[in-house]
Amino acid sequence: MTKLLEKDGGSLRRNEVTSTVARVKTLNTFRQLDAHRNVQIIRFLYEAKQLTDTPENLSLDLSTAKLFDIDFRDAAVDAKPDLSHPQLSNVKLHNTTFASAILASAVFHRVKASFMNFTQTTAVAVRFELAALTYSNFSNSNIKRAIFWDTTLKEIDFSRANLYKVLFPDTDIEDVQLERALSIHGAELCNGTRVHGINLINDGQFNCTHALINGWTLKHVNVTVVMSNQSNNNCHFNIQPLSIEAT
Predict the structure, then answer these.
(1) Matching Pfam families, A to Z (predicted)?
(2) What digits encode the pLDDT tens for the residues 204-244?
């Protein structure tokens, strides 16, 4: 694979022959090696910029690849595996772990995925398009501004996940899944309805000078006031329990 990259100026999609050879070699290697070694291959392709679409270079076609029992924490160079902007289309994922990974703007197109672990993942603006997700865990993840377009969501755990301004076009999601999320403010359901976050203050709206001792329904977190335009009635109340802030 290294020789192909050197031969074609660092791109496996520079011409049709190279693209076909690289795809066949990669898929055959996935079938022959174990999950741990397959992670290293994916990491190599990612670091070589072969799994991201850029104006100069298209991503390598991994469609039909079966990536089972893979733990992307094994590919981490630093504390968290950074896999931002990957293009994963038509692949099958099973028992795959992206826990604590950075998946900003990742695209999962026509992916079939089951028993996935996305816990504590930072996946802002991730896109699931025409995908099928079953029995998977997004708890404590930050997926604000994500898009789940025409995607099956069966037995998905969004507990304490940040769903701020997430879009669900043509995607059914159960109320109980939304109720467990950290934030659903601005999320758009399949029928076009915009969701608003619950009111965290009892007995009316407090102004910015309130001591924040009484009246809050949210517990076990720190609450601070952010003043806006120096007005006592124009401010934001910020919760600080997690690193996955809602906005």
Answers:
(1) Pentapeptide_4
(2) 444 555 555 454 555 455 555 444 454 544 555 555 554 45
Three-state SS at 58:
coil
**Helix, strand, coil percentages in the chain from 3-state DSSP, rounded to 5:** 20, 25, 55
Sign of the Cα pseudo-torsion (25, 128, 171, 139, in order)? positive
Q: How many Å separate Cα 130 from the centre of its chain?
A: 15
Task: Report residue 104 as tokens.
Answer: 């900003």
Where are the domains positioned within the chain?
Answer: 1-50, 63-198, 199-241
- Token pair of 52, please? 């991201």
Residue with tokens 């109980």: 176
The dihedral sign for the CA sequence 155, 27, 41, 69: positive
| pTM for the predicted model, two decimal places | 0.76
| Cα-based distances in Å from 147 to 127, 156, 186, 187, 216 | 5, 15, 13, 10, 31
- CATH level 3 topology of 63-198: Pectate Lyase C-like (2.160.20)
